[in-house]
Design goal:
Layout: E1 2-5, H1 11-21, H2 32-47, E2 57-63, E3 70-77, E4 88-98, E5 103-113, E6 120-127, H3 136-150, E7 158-162, H4 174-182, H5 188-196, H6 201-206, E8 212-213, H7 219-223, H8 233-241, E9 245-250, E10 257-262, H9 267-270, E11 273-280, E12 295-303, E13 311-314, E14 318-320, E15 325-329, H10 330-336, E16 343-353, H11 357-373, E17 377-378
Parallel strand pairs: 6-7, 11-15
Antiparallel strand pairs: 1-2, 1-13, 2-3, 3-6, 4-5, 4-9, 5-8, 6-17, 7-10, 9-10, 11-16, 12-13, 12-16, 14-15
Helix pairs in contact: 1-2
Amino acid sequence: MFIRPIAHKDLDVLQEIAVESGPGFTSLVDDRDFLTQKIQHSIDSFASSVTQPGSESYLFVLEDPDTGDVIGTTGIEASVGMDSPLYHYHKSQVVHHSRELSLFKRVDVLNMCNHYTGCTEICTLFLRPQFRRAYAGKLLSKVRFLFMAQHPQRFANTVIAEMRGVSCDDGRSPFWTWLRDHFVDLDFATVTGLVGSGNNRFIAELMPKYPLYTHLLSPEAQQVIGQVHDKTRPALHMLESEGFRHKGYVDLFDAGPTVEAELSQIRSIAGSIECRVQVIDAETPIFNRGQKQDQHEVLAIANTATADFRATVTEEATYLPQHNLLQIPSALCESLGLTDGATARFVQLAAAKSATATETQTYELKTAHRHQQEFLYAL
């Protein structure tokens, strides 16, 4: 599996992903002209020289080099809310207190705001169900942090992720159903499609301007505020392990949580290592690996390019910390566009032990179960 920047040849499969992801996945819309422009904007962003974050949008795809299949996609928006407002509800409390009557009441409210204007957003992560495999979801998530660690000037200090909220199998959102009944007579798929295509004028025109007292919402709508879609839950847990936290901001339409972290404090950024590369082939003597022979590490590795960015996950590379040297097989180096003495960046994904045949069968069963839990998307 290899990550690369999206190209125009990926238009057809990107449209397939837009359909597969379904309503609520506002990062992609089933509109060929819109997707063509999105791909071109990404190509231009990778090619641009950047000293501070602007309107750049970086879209990556995960490809199987043996079949040419695109397994999934993931992206980064350098600075959101600048060209068009990025709206959220913020959940807080107000207190109604009368000293004279000895009455005290604390209630939850939702206030519309533009709190995250100018922040970087990680988005558009979708792993196609038919291509689930070990480490595919982790690579799609963590590759963004490798790219951001290598090019921090392209991104804001605060990084956010809008998590997909609760919706039914038929695409209905309990939260939006209440809003539709009282304010905006448009179905959930229509409003998310409008927002995904950049048309959010209706928000300022039709959405309620005053605080929403949550106890006035339907019980179904109240229950999903700040909750995520079942298929997004593993993605949320992964981001929480990176240091992302929810601070009360939720989506206007499905009330899914938005989580945030400081760029330099994200664990995969702070813990990533920039190092020199040693190309290993059959003739190269291997020495001082610093590991037991029955152990190996799973690493996500990326080159340090922009337009020619490449990344993968492998168990075949060995890091020698005393030399700040990453030993990589020649075939893998070629796929990543790396040469001997070049610079790469990596982050450890996991450590594993070699196994007996019986242990391997057990591992495969556990892996199959993990694949069922592997996340599909995180907005």
